[in-house]
Write a structure and sequence with these properties.
The complex is a heterodimer. Chain A is of the alpha+beta class. In chain A, about 55% of the residues lie in helices and about 15% in strands. Chain B has a single domain (about 15-95), classed as GMP Synthetase, Chain A, domain 3 (2-Layer Sandwich), CATH 3.30.300. In chain B, helix 2 links the parallel strand 2 and strand 3 (about 85-95). By secondary structure, chain B is an alpha+beta fold. Chain B has helices at about 15-30, 65-80; strands spanning about 35-45, 45-55, 85-95. A 3-stranded mixed sheet of chain B has the order 1-2-3. Classes of the chains: A alpha+beta, B alpha+beta. Chains A and B meet through loops of A and strand 1 and strand 2 of B.
Chain lengths: ~190, ~100
Amino acid sequence: MNERMRSRYGRRMRHRSRSVAVSIALWIAALPLVYLAIESVLELVGAPALWQAPLQVIETVTGAEALRFGVAAAAVMIGLVLLVLAFAPGRLGRHELADERMLVVVDDDVLAGALSRAAASTAGVERDRASTSIGRRKADVSLRPTSGFAVSREDVDRATERELERLAVRPAVRARSRIEQAGVVGR
Amino acid sequence: MDGTSPAGRVSLSSRAIERTLGALAAEELGVPADTSGVRLHDAGGRLGVAVTAPVALGRGRTVLAAAEAAQRRVLADGPTLTGAQISTARIRVTGLHDVEPRRVR
């Protein structure tokens, strides 16, 4: 697998697929066209309209004030939703890990767990005293120390940085740690 | 794992800290260690200590002086013995303890 394929597949797994949005948009576009086609043919052969003649539909919609605004508002809404779906990056909260042979994509929860574990073991506290939230490019690690036993922020920072280096996460993540003021009396 | 520290984790149970600090205070108050009770709480990341213990009769000092001595002892020797940073020590004297052992006649 060469580098280009790898980065393309990685991108695919880190982003939401647009296929559902695309197929819905296509249906929305296709239905009126099919309707127009059917009614036009019926009109040509002189048969009665299946539902309503297109001109009549336009007349009904533009006739009543409320209906006109309703239809316009609905069109605007659908348009906005489609625009957002089209242009938003659709990230899935995952990162790639460096691996020589395969493409490894992990959920950010997994990454957060790894960082919390590194932070907690450095600080010598239980694993559940560290929590991490991960964004695309940065991770915030917060740690509750044991009362009476100060934890060095630099040590925790170093440990989380080392963990990130070891995993070689992509896109690169910077970790920032915070030692909470209040501690917990150990058991 | 990373080579800088041995595998595993060393932790001090709060019970051990409680008993150590209790023994310190009891020694200063002149009573057996098992007569003291200790509560630990968090004080802004440091340790807050509350000791309840009786005080020994005699020894030519006031109860207050004995309690203050116990407090100083906990604050001074507690950190060295347990490694914990102690911010406050409250001593509550709950009774008088007769140190002379009673003889069975």
